[in-house]
């Protein structure tokens, strides 16, 4: 049984439907990549899965349970964690506190243990634990954001555009940590603009175009031919493979 | 010169209470995005709580301050749980709902207690600071306020819950996504804000007599402090508390006590026009 | 002319006829006379808050200022009230423009808080300059026997009723005219999304000031006629925070953003308040208790007001369905305005 399923999911904002009748599933141990042009609905999909945006219709099933009507903090406690686009740390708190709140409900001892695990993954954070999150560089912020999500020991990690606004060398570090996460039993949905990195890591891949899935598969055919993906981006080829 | 020293010293002592009034307002604003129009009413509720409690128990009003805080915090919690959270989620609408509540409170107090001035002022005698005669109760009030403020700030910055509250003021969605129940934090913030207001009322009642309408005057002071200090800026609130206390005292002494609100109005207007983020520039627009 | 227009005309006729029907009941005649005067103020609040999105607490202040000015004009220059109405309301409008210019730059809650400060300041000032205004005892106008239209003095309660009726009609007509004009469209675009409006080239500050000025005229006329009726104006009536809630509650209860919101609201509110007064009258604070409770209940249960009950559109308050309407109307406005450069 898949870990996470979206079934005929429709979601959006006021007048704008961003995601339309979308169905996807995530298996355990997978890294599922989600690509598509701006406005395709990738962020909205993640927000609908985590509960930040309400579902218009359809359902989200996580670990066999329907979670579509649950508020975000309940879904989070069940094992869903999200790294938002733009990081969204808490600037009035320092790095350690930002991390700690990710494991808010745990006892102090357990929090320290998990913090250590995160620091093993991102050693650079050790030096800046007491620094205010508001003054961090983009790369540091991204590490803290991912770390914060990991503090909850999630089963599913949803990451929204981690490379946005970051220098490639920093992005390398973030991406380097992902295989470790997979080994540790965290399944990942990764939304990215930078298709190439995704192709190396993703077990499966979907291209979103105007709120619908234009392609879904293991992406192998694009490894040596990433340009072919753009056709799905632009919507010239639909899910059925027919020319539009 | 004597008069000036008098003004300065009384202002500093007054600023203590003004600071915790603004602290309560800023916490509520930071977490809930609402300007608590009922803050003045909550302050006067605290004062009346002291009055009735002291008649009941005969205890020293300073001791009663804690109870005032708890009582008004409870009222605030009930208001939030039983009413506020069900209203339209718009800060403006909720503000007007709180104005309604403020009217209800003041009117109820009028009905219950009438318009006689109530007095639980305390007389510990007089002393001198920098050549100015002050009542010892004023100094105790100041110390009480500072201690209460310090405890609140320590709790905000060093406890798990306090940090969560801070997080909500920064980014509520992230708090939710981290599995933390933000609605409980909203409730807590509102109750704490109300409690601080109630405690302020208790403290204020130790040195002035009051009637239900005094709540409106306290509301004016409270808003003046948070606007001048910058909405949501706790440090700015400290500076602004002093500014407002000075302004009030100076205008009373040098111009007329009947023009204080006009002075506050003009100051607030100028600040909003030229420095909308408040004195230290860290407030929220 | 659709059924709505007919409904309004019928309602107006009914209200006018009601005056004659109530002739033998001075209590109710008074209640509804006051209701109609206050409905003008509520409509003025409706214009500023319901249609332009600026929630003021001080609308009653314009009512009071115009009354004070007209009264002082009569006392110091002998110019009778009805003739003093024009300069009084004119000066009030100028004051409103100034105040608006200073305060309408501020958004949402800041604006509301500042109006609160302004109210308390005006209250103080009126009492400070007691020599001119009568201070806390208020300003009383000499009572004259018989009918004198110019002094707005009638010996018949019924005539006051119709004077108030005229005021209500005038105020509603002004509101209607403003709302239906191109200005009305612009006001609503400011209410819904000021930033988008500004991006389209709309002079948001100037428009808001205009709205406030127009609303002050509506309230001001009511104030002068009120003075003719009651012969008394004091700081509490004009600038008391409790009384200031009256037009707000009336506006919200009737429906902020509805053409007849202020009227319906006041006609619903006044009998309630009057009855409360009648029953509990001797207890001070009872009317503010009534306002407070009603305001709290209306916001909770009926935020769109009575007239907003069946209406999905046209409400000033944000409910989830409103967001949809807002965006849709925003698009309509953008289309409409793109054909009107420099609007």
What are the SSEs and their pairings?
The complex is a heterotrimer of chains A (244), B (285) and C (343).
Chain A (H helix, E strand, L loop, with lengths): L3 E10 L2 E11 L4 E5 L6 H9 L4 E8 L2 E2 L5 H6 L2 E4 L11 H8 L5 H14 L16 H13 L5 E5 L7 H16 L3 E5 L3 H7 L2 E6 L2 E6 L9 H7 L11
Parallel strand pairs in A: 3-8, 3-9, 6-7, 7-8
Antiparallel strand pairs in A: 1-2, 1-4, 4-5, 9-10
Helix pairs in contact in A: 3-5
Chain B lengths: L1 H31 L6 H19 L3 H22 L8 H23 L12 E4 L2 E4 H23 L1 H11 L1 H6 L4 H23 L9 H16 L4 H22 L4 H15 L11
Antiparallel strand pairs in B: 1-2
Chain C lengths: L2 H19 L4 H26 L7 H19 L3 H23 L4 H21 L1 H4 L5 E2 L16 H24 L1 H11 L1 H6 L4 H27 L1 E2 L1 H5 L1 H14 L6 H20 L5 H16 L18 H19 L5
Antiparallel strand pairs in C: 1-2
Helix pairs in contact in C: 1-7, 2-7, 2-10, 2-12, 2-13, 3-4, 3-10, 4-10, 7-8, 7-10, 8-10, 8-15, 12-13, 12-14, 13-14
**Quaternary:** heterotrimer
The helix-and-strand class of chain B reads mainly alpha
Q: What profile does the largest beta sheet of chain B have?
A: 2 strands, antiparallel
Major beta sheet, strand line-up of chain C: 1-2
SSE string of chain C, helices as H and strands as E: HHHHHHEHHHHEHHHHH
Shape of chain C: globular
**Tally of individual helices of chain B:** 11
Strand-residue proportion of chain C? under 5%
**Helix content bin of chain C:** over 70%
Average pLDDT level of chain B? 92
Largest sheet of chain C: 2 strands, antiparallel
